[in-house]
């Protein structure tokens, strides 16, 4: 059995040690928000947080996360009201939407360690997340709006 914490809940899993975390999330835990894109760590569609750090779940064996904390898009906020999620809605960021949970998880990891990233820092942090629909300008605008506090109620932004 492998024990870990997923979105704040303790789980015990009886799976092969080499099973990719992405398969465990989707097939064993029913958390379908994390997407399969390339399966090779290249596109970012499967991005989750491992102990708060943006991580590709498609190439991560479950044995490597024993005892650690995973967060998926389902656990990013309680009511899909993370500032980035609100900004994503207001800026109509998604097109087909397939890449967007990975985009949001990468953006959330960036802002958790750097609340006011420069444009270059945003580009660097988001460079591993591919969007076939080309939503990059809207993604960047949404991140920048969150970074300046536009979605922070404490700063007088939108609630
Ligand atoms: S599916 Fe994991 S990086 Fe593409
Ligand atoms: S919104 Fe379609 S792949 Fe990004």
TrEMBL record:
Every 2Fe-2S ferredoxin-type domain range: 1-76
Superkingdom of origin: Bacteria
Parts forming coiled coils: none
UniProt-recorded Gene Ontology molecular function terms: 2 iron, 2 sulfur cluster binding; metal ion binding; oxidoreductase activity
Pfam families per the UniProt record, alphabetical: Fer2 (PF00111), Fer2_2 (PF01799)
Sorted UniProt keywords: 2Fe-2S, Iron, Iron-sulfur, Metal-binding, Oxidoreductase
Gene3D superfamilies the UniProt entry points to: 3.10.20.30, [2Fe-2S]-binding domain
InterPro entries: 2Fe-2S-bd, 2Fe-2S-bd_dom_sf, 2Fe-2S_ferredoxin-like_sf, 2Fe-2S_ferredoxin-type, 2Fe2S_fd_BS, Beta-grasp_dom_sf, Diverse_Oxidoreductases
Stored CDD domains: fer2
Annotated organism of origin: Sinobacterium caligoides
Protein name: Isoquinoline 1-oxidoreductase alpha subunit
């Amino acid at each position: 059995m492998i024990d870990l914490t997923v979105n704040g809940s303790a789980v015990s899993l009886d799976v092969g040690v080499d099973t990719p975390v992405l398969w465990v999330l989707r097939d064993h835990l029913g958390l379908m928000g994390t997407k399969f894109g390339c399966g090779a760590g290249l596109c970012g569609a499967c991005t989750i947080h491992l102990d708060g750090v943006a991580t590709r779940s498609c190439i991560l064996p479950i044995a490597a996360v024993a005892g650690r904390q995973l967060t998926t898009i389902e656990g990013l906020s309680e009511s899909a009201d993370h500032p980035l999620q609100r900004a994503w809605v207001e800026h109509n960021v998604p097109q087909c939407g397939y890449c967007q949970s990975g985009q949001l998880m990468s953006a959330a990891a960036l802002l958790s360690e750097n609340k006011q990233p420069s444009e270059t820092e945003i580009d660097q942090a988001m460079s591993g997340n591919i969007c076939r629909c080309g939503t990059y300008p809207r993604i960047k605008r949404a991140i920048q709006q969150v970074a300046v506090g536009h979605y922070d109620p404490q700063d007088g932004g939108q609630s």
